[in-house]
Write a structure and sequence with these properties.
Elements lengths: L15 H15 L6 E2 L11 H13 L16 H12 L11 E4 L2 H7 L10 E5 L3 H9 L6 E2 L2 E2 L2 E5 L17 E5 L11 H14 L2 E5 L25 E6 L1 H4 L7 E4 L5 E3 L5 E3 H12 L5 H8 L4 H27 L4 E3 L5 E5 L6 H12 L1 E2 L1 E2 L10 E5 L4 H15 L2
Parallel strand pairs: 1-15, 3-6, 3-7, 7-8, 8-9
Antiparallel strand pairs: 2-10, 4-5, 9-10, 11-12, 13-14, 14-17, 16-17
Helix pairs in contact: 2-9, 3-9, 4-5, 10-12
Bound molecules: D-malate (MLT).
Length: 410
């Protein structure tokens, strides 16, 4: 008799974004004529940069002849891409990593979800709340979260980030072994200063904890004093794994490419207290379970670091950040409290009249045909908030603001 991993049975029926897609689809069936503006899932709308398209076409042609064909690549990624990452994303910020500390993958969602494979099931978990649901759900699957009671997992330490604390998480009052931090933050769109991030690195150093640092949105940082990488903080290589993604940086949500940095200085421990280098374990895990990102994709990713690629990526990011500015100004003009959106493509909106997140989501969908993401879907501290993304088309973004203004001023 084959037995299931019963931890899966503890999960809620479906993933947050699948739930929302279902609701939107049923609305479409009952309201076929209404034009929906999607500001829910953080999916990009602008095409890939021309430099990426050109590099991918060239890579396709290479695969067409015997002399330049590529079969299996290195599971860790091709050195042409890893070298470009090291030079442009790290050395340029004074962070020096070895090529074998970088693992190219199909994106940060898979890596943040899979990283726990290397760690025992009885580690304690800390998350900022609200939180990207993958961190929680993947730990539910591994049996680290306990049971769900009133919207909270009993063995997870929730660190609230709300208006009251200006969305700055305090260090946990209970010991945690693994801490998930995402900055710029999904979903609140807020950031951490170097001093704030330093507190977390020092906490992890003092407690032999590990920080899972998701910086998928670092390309959206506009203020020069906000850290792009946790390794800008002294000592972080001893305690942090960093996840990066080309999805939001360069429009790869459908193409799939990202990477994870596992420094060689980072150790975890056996029950007997022996130290184990996590870089070795992740390498072993990836070589067994992953056959690498496609050659075409990696050539496309490499192209974002060319001079034209950089310029084109910047233009697209400016486009989305202009959307974010239009939205922030528009929402404030409607009298709403709104956060984020200055160093991140997400805006975190306090619902009017103390409406619950889902109630406000439904009203927006049915009364103005705008799709957001209910804050409570990201955790208990998200109740009473709604997330909007700036990844839309400009005309749709402006139309959404007009609809909201009319609706709220009725
Ligand atoms: C989001 O909307 O939070 C993201 O698009 C989800 C993701 O990147 O997987």
């Amino acid at each position: 008799m084959a037995l299931v991993n019963e931890h899966f049975l503890k999960l809620q029926n479906s993933y947050l974004f699948s739930d929302i897609a279902k609701k939107v689809n049923s609305f479409k069936i009952t309201h076929p004529k209404d034009k929906i503006i999607r500001m829910g899932i953080g999916d990009v709308t602008q095409p890939l940069p021309p430099a990426v398209i050109e590099a991918m076409h060239k890579a396709v042609d290479e695969l067409a002849t015997k002399e330049t064909f590529h079969g299996y690549g290195p599971e860790q990624g091709y050195s042409f891409l890893i070298d470009a990452i090291l030079k442009n994303d790290y050395a340029s910020r004074g962070v020096y990593l070895e090529p074998s500390e970088v693992f190219v993958s199909d994106g940060a969602k898979s890596d943040t979800g899979n990283i726990g494979d290397m760690l025992r099931h009885d580690n304690s978990i800390g998350v900022t709340d609200p939180v990207y649901p993958v961190y929680i759900d993947s730990n539910v699957m591994s049996g680290r979260t306990g049971i769900l009671e009133n919207g909270k997992w009993s063995d997870v330490v929730y660190i609230p980030c709300t208006e009251e604390n200006n969305f700055i998480p305090s260090l946990p009052d209970r010991r945690v072994d693994i801490i998930y931090l995402c900055y710029p933050n999904n979903p609140t769109g807020t950031t951490l200063s170097k001093d704030e991030l330093k507190k977390w690195v020092n906490y992890a150093l003092a407690n032999n904890a590990i920080i899972m640092y998701d910086s998928a949105y670092e390309a959206y940082i506009q203020d020069t004093d906000i850290p792009h990488s946790i390794y800008e903080i002294k000592g972080a290589k001893k305690v942090a794994i960093e996840f990066r993604s080309f999805s939001k940086t360069a429009g790869f949500t459908g193409v799939r490419c990202g990477y994870t940095v596992v420094p060689k200085e980072l150790n975890a421990f056996t029950l007997n207290g022996e130290t184990v280098q996590l870089n070795k374990l992740w390498n072993r895990r990836q070589s067994t379970k992953f056959n690498g990102t496609s050659y075409i994709t990696q050539r496309g990713a490499e192209a974002i670091y060319s001079p034209e690629g950089k310029k084109q990526v910047k233009e697209t990011i400016n486009y989305y950040m202009t959307n974010a500015r239009i939205m922030k100004e528009g929402l404030r003009a409607c009298g709403l409290n709104v956060y984020g959106g200055t160093n991140a493509p997400y805006l975190w909106l306090k619902t009017p009249d103390r409406l619950s997140s889902w109630k406000f989501f439904d009203k927006l969908l049915y009364e103005v045909n705008i799709v957001g993401t209910p804050g409570v879907g990201f955790g208990p501290s998200g109740e009473g908030y709604l997330r909007l993304t700036a990844f839309g088309d400009r005309n749709d973004t402006m139309e959404a603001m007009d609809r909201l203004k009319k609706w709220l001023h009725q």
